[in-house]
Amino acid sequence: MFGTSTPRAMHRFRMALVTLGLLASALPAHAVPSFARQTGQDCVACHVGGFGPQLTPYGIKFKLGGYTDSDGKAGHIPLSAMLVQSYTQTSKDQSADPAKGFSKNDNLSLQEISMFVAGRFSDNIGAFVQVTHAEPDRKTTLDNADLRIVKNMQIADKDTVLGISINNNPTVQDAFNTVPAWRFPYMSSELAVGSAASPLIDGALAQQVIGVSAYGFYDNHWYAELGGYNSLSKRILDDINIAPGDKIKGTSPYWRLAYFEDQRKQAYSFGIFGMDAHLLPGWTPGQTDKYRDIGIDGSYQFLGTREHVFALNGSYINERRNLDASFGAGDAEKRHGSINRLDVSGSYHFDKTYGATLALFDIRGSRDNGLYNSGEQDVGSVKASPNTRGYTVQGDWTPFGKEDSWGNGWANLRLGLQYTGYTKFNGAKNNYDGFGRNASDNNTLFAFAWFAI
User: Fold this and answer.
1) Can you say whether the dihedral through the CA atoms of 158, 159, 165, 170 is positive or negative?
2) 3-state DSSP call for residue 33?
3) 136, 263, 416, 440 — which has fewest CB within 10 A?
4) How far apart are CA 352 and CA 44, in angstroms?
5) Domain 7-452 is in which class?
6) Rounded CA separation 118/31 (Å)
7) How confident is the model at residue 443, as a pLDDT?
8) Does this model's pTM top 0.70?
9) How many CA atoms lie within 13 A of 374 on its CB side?
């Protein structure tokens, strides 16, 4: 899909990305008030609980329509910003400082500041582009980006949207809040430990790639998408402050099929998605590691009169691996392996203001001493497994985002308290690292104040 480019063409493309990032950061994932101002709708029209990114049926259609829906008035400026202040506490001090300038526990952090170019540029073009400065790593990066070109038409007398998405994170273009880029938790600590592994499609390629996909949304029910991804060059990644991971060899195909039903008082969706990738570890030419990810997902929302809103989201991803390159280099104990991930979340929101969510996660995969052992583990005792499971509970308060709210269309706020508990971590409940650390030692209390303007 992406052919060989001349140095001049690559330079122009690189400069275009940098210019877009500078534009977003120089002017004044998430819910962005610029969408509310553009459509003339309140935040609660698009987002469950009055704050993103979980979408209502209207929000789903707005995204699939390329961010172009409008109130018909001129002069809307597609710019927004957000700030997240957070506090992280783990049950036991971490074995090392989570980032430079932070301690092993009890960390207060200005977690991120983001600027957005988000909204409609014409009847057929819209975008969501995010530039983020994160305090934990003290870098400003080009974050999620999704540029869309759409055409509304009739096919067999049915409303149809045909579109093209140009984006930098597989699943970031998805609208159903079940796939990795947008599933719960929508905000989490960047200063707490995480599991050893997850399927490749679960964020491993985020911001490191450029993808183009074509999609169709037929009769307000049927959604289909087909596209492909290539790795950005190291020069571009350096310009946008993204550390390169493994390089995609060729083009990695991505596909998606889903059915969506909006019955006004309730809505649901279900679907299937997948991606294949051949990666060159460390960008070293030669053999590749091959990944095949296939997932199924579903969601249900009870909307009623919007006073009491219930939502249920779930997904299951199976990944099959053929690690020829890593096995040959001695970085994997086994040539073949797999990893599976299950995520389920249920939420309740009252009066578009108060929310409570419970989520369960379960990661299971093949044991491998090469992949899952590190210098911080006692190799004689460690389980050498990615198996991790647990739960997340969150309560939140969103005082604004409604028709009569202060700053309606210009400002929003969510205050949240979140607790993540682990019943298994990297292969074991107790002594998973060989040095006496238990899964529950990583239980995390996370408090956040999430502002959007």
Assistant:
1) negative
2) helix
3) 263
4) 7
5) mainly beta
6) 10
7) 98
8) yes
9) 11
